[in-house]
Structures are given as structure tokens and as C-alpha cells.
Design goal:
This protein is an alpha/beta fold and 240 residues long. The protein folds into two domains: 73 residues, no CATH class; 150 residues, Zincin-like (2-Layer Sandwich). The chain is 36% helix and 21% strand. It contains seven helices and eleven strands. The strands form three sheets. The chain has a four-stranded mixed β-sheet. The two termini are 30 Å apart. The N terminus is likely disordered.
């Protein structure tokens, strides 16, 4: 830690269980203390600090909590690609994978079952591609809905495979949504889309942004955020 503080222009990081993890440090105007969480996939440590705090304070904060970070890192499940007879998450439900080689190759939902055929060795790849197509379809519907509510033209929509963010909105108005959200309950996915649509009007996290988002999203924002914090890592379990 001391060595890092002495190096100029160094990217802040912390070593946890032999892995060097970057520190994503964000100043928040309403923060009164330092808070920390691990990214859902374990790729970085996210620290929110008050405006008055220094980057060095965040580094010290992380190093004092190495045991907690190690426990959080160990709790991340290893990737378990879906296989015939197993399950896959889709819109908050665990679908049983019913595979028979003679069935159509393209997955299809039937009740609480995902039915597909084709080569067994390509089942994980085809399920992932199907999930990505479903993510694009559902997010496009969500985007149209919230842009209409906001009175905004629909921006370009792209799926993201990011390991660190659920959604983003570029300065040019392109919205990206993490495809893994197709596995989450509908209100959770929709809350992320609504969040990014709100950024088309308020490109910050100011009180005006949060007030606009509350008017835009018809569901329970606190519940959706809590679900992502509690269950977000599970969305990486199948494909990493």
C-alpha cells in the first residue's frame, strides 16, 4: 500500500487472494462516508467516496478490509455453462434444459422448460446466443416504452458484454445494456433501461436525475437496486 502511495500516476489497485484488482473510485455529492463493494464478476473493487475525500483515503480503506474482500471474492460462483438436463436463468426463472438431438437447434421456451436439439457439444453456445437475442428484443421494447414516457426519440441500442457495468449511455446518445440482465426478473432489467434513458436528459447522478428516474420508472427502484446488489453475481454463473 505504501509503495502505491509513493508512485505517481499509478492506477489504484489492491491485491486480494493473490489477484490484483483495480479500484474504481467514484466521488458522490451526497456521500457522507466511504462505501465499498466488489463488482459482480470480481473484476474490480468499487469505492464511493465523499467529494472531500482523497484517492489515497480510498486505497487505505480498501487495504483495511482485505479479509472482507477475500470473502466476497471467494463467494463468486465459478462459471457453469448450461448443459442438457440442467437449468438456465431467463427473466428471473430457472428453465430446465430439455435436449434431444432430433429437435430443432434453436431453443424455444415451453412452460418452465427450454427445448432444443442439435449437437450436444454446442448447447451452451446456442443457449447464450438465444439469450442475447432475447435480451436485445426485450430491451428494445423497454427502450421504446421509456423513451415514449419521457417524450424522447429512441437512441441507438446495443448489447454489452461488459464485466463491470449493467448499462451505460454515451455522450452521443447510444445506450448499452448488459445482455446478462435477460436472466434477471423483468423489473430489474427494466429499471436499468429506465436509468439509462434518464441519462439522455440528465447526464449525471444529480438530484434532478434521480427525481426524473423516479417519475419515469413505474416499479420499485429500491427493490430493483437491492436485487442487483444481492443477486447480480448469479447472472455471471452460467457464462462468466
Amino acid at each position: 500500500m505504501i509503495d502505491w502511495l509513493r508512485r505517481e500516476n499509478a492506477e489504484p489497485s489492491v491485491t486480494v487472494a493473490g489477484r490484483e484488482l483495480p479500484l474504481a473510485i467514484r466521488r458522490h455529492p451526497r456521500a457522507t462516508r466511504l462505501t465499498m463493494r466488489l463488482a459482480p464478476d470480481g473484476s474490480e473493487v468499487r469505492i464511493t467516496i465523499p467529494r472531500w475525500a482523497r484517492t489515497a483515503d480510498a486505497v487505505v480503506f480498501a487495504h483495511k478490509r482485505l479479509d472482507w474482500l477475500e470473502g466476497q471474492l471467494a463467494a463468486i460462483p465459478p462459471a457453469r455453462p448450461p448443459q442438457p438436463g440442467g437449468t438456465v436463468l431467463y427473466r428471473g426463472c430457472a428453465l430446465t434444459i430439455a435436449w434431444e438431438q432430433g429437435r430443432p437447434r434453436t431453443p424455444e421456451v415451453s412452460g418452465e422448460t427450454l427445448v432444443l436439439g442439435g449437437p450436444a457439444e454446442t448447447v451452451p453456445t446456442r443457449i447464450r446466443r438465444w439469450l442475447e437475442r432475447e435480451a436485445l428484443r426485450l430491451c428494445a421494447q423497454d427502450l421504446a416504452h421509456y423513451c415514449a414516457r419521457a417524450g424522447l426519440a429512441e437512441p441507438q441500442l446495443r448489447l454489452s458484454r461488459a464485466l463491470r457495468r449493467w448499462g451505460s449511455c454515451s455522450g452521443k446518445g447510444c445506450i448499452r445494456i448488459n445482455w446478462r440482465l435477460v436472466q434477471a426478473p423483468d423489473p430489474v432489467r427494466r429499471s436499468v433501461v429506465a436509468h439509462e434513458v434518464a441519462h439522455l436528459t440528465h447526464f449525471d447522478h444529480s438530484p434532478a436525475f434521480h427525481a426524473f428516474l423516479r417519475r419515469l420508472f413505474e416499479g420499485d427502484l429500491a427493490a430493483a437496486d437491492a436485487w442487483l446488489k444481492r443477486e447480480g453475481r448469479s447472472l455471471y454463473a452460467a457464462f462468466g
